[in-house]
Amino acid sequence: MNGLYTDNLITYWLTQMGGMATIDSYLPNRPGKLDDIQDALVEQFSHHQELLNGAADKIINDNLCFVQAGIRPGVPLDQQDPRDLRWIREGFLDHDLPFERLVVHGHTPTENSFPDVLGRRCRWLGFVTVEVRLYPTNPK
Question: Of 4, 20, 62, 99, which has the fewest CB atoms closer than 10 Å, so is most exposed?
């Protein structure tokens, strides 16, 4: 629940964004209290937390920049705030000038659940949205 700072946001994540289904996939016999759930997750799956905590905020190669949510326009890639890389929407999605690289990101559901390619700025200096709204699906 990294980055979810208020009870309201945690409740929204749990009830509206697939949080309970995610927890149930880890703990099919989950405890009833949130503190007990957190303790069980840490006890049984700390290696998952280590993996996520060690993940890169961004991956950059010659032409591409991979991030969770997007980048802050006007800020060089090597100076981006990690919070923007995970959460930004406004200012990024409506930005209409070229970026340093083609930005491949998620965090923003598409209308049709297929990737959106928005290269309107020039040949490859746009962005590609690959968020496909997996959280509301039921794989059962």
Answer: 62
Give per-residue pLDDT as tens, 40-96: 998 999 998 888 888 899 999 988 899 988 999 999 999 999 999 988 988 988 888
The helix, strand and coil proportions of the chain, stated in percent and rounded to the nearest 5, come to 35, 10, 55
The answer for residues whose C-beta is within 8 angstroms of residue 8's C-beta and 6 or more apart is: none
Tokens 């297929």 belong to 114
Task: Please check whether residue 65 is in contact with residue 100, taking contact to mean a CB–CB distance below 8 angstroms.
Answer: yes
Residue of 58, 48, 60 whose CA lies nearest to 100: 60
pTM: predicted TM-score of the whole model, two decimal places: 0.66
* DSSP category for residue 32: S
